[in-house]
Design brief:
Blueprint (H helix, E strand, L loop, with lengths): L2 H28 L2 H9 L10 H10 L11 H4 L5 H6 L17 H20 L5 H6 L9 H30 L14 H4 L2 H4 L10 H5 L6
Helix pairs in contact: 1-8, 3-6
Amino acid sequence: MSVELLKRQLVRINRYFTQLVNSFDIMVEGMDRDEFLRFRMSLLPASGFQSVQYRMIEIAGTDLGQLVHVTKRELTEGVNDVELLYSVLYWKSGATELSSGKKTLTLRQFEDKYGHDLLRFAKKYQSCNLRRIYYNLPADTRQDAELIGLMREFDLNANVRWALSHYRSAVKYLDAKPKEIEATGGTNWQKYLPPRFQCVQFYPELWSKEETENWGKFQ
C-alpha cells in the first residue's frame, strides 16, 4: 500500500469516527433521563458491546497483542499464538456480571455467534493489519509527520473519544444515586468504559511516555 493511499484511508476512517462520536450528543444532550430509560428498554438484553464491526476494526487496526487486557500483557508479551491472545482480549472483561464475575449472557451469545469468525479474521490480519502495514513502510516514510498525525488521530478516536462518549452517556443516565442502574447487558461498565482503565493503544510507539501515562485524560 502506498503512503498516499494509506493517508486517504486514515482520513476516511477518522471522519467516520468523528461522526459517530458527535452522534452521542443527540442522546446525551437531546434526551432527559426518563426519555433515555424508556428508550433503552427496547434494547434489552442487548448491549453496545455487541458490535462485531467494531471488534473487526480493532483487529484490522493493530496487532492482536495490543488488544490484550492490561492485566495479561506481561504474560503474553512476545506471544504470537492468535488463539491464546484472542482468549484474553480486553473487551471480554467488560462483559462480566457484577455479582458473580461470570460471563454475561451478552458475551456468551456474542461468542457463540461471532467467535469463530472473529478468530479467523484475527488470523488473517495477524500479518497485514494497519500496524504491520505501517512498519513495513520504508524507515524514512514512517517519519512522515502527516501520516503519524493521522495514525495518532485514529488511535485517539478508536480508544479514547469513542469510549468516553459511551462513558459520559452511562454516567449521565445510569450512575443514579443511591442505586446505580445496570447497563443493558448487565456489564461492569464502570470498570470497562473508561479508557484510562483499559489503556488500549493501537500504536504505543507513536506516543510519549507522558501521553501514555495520561491516556484517556486528554482528547
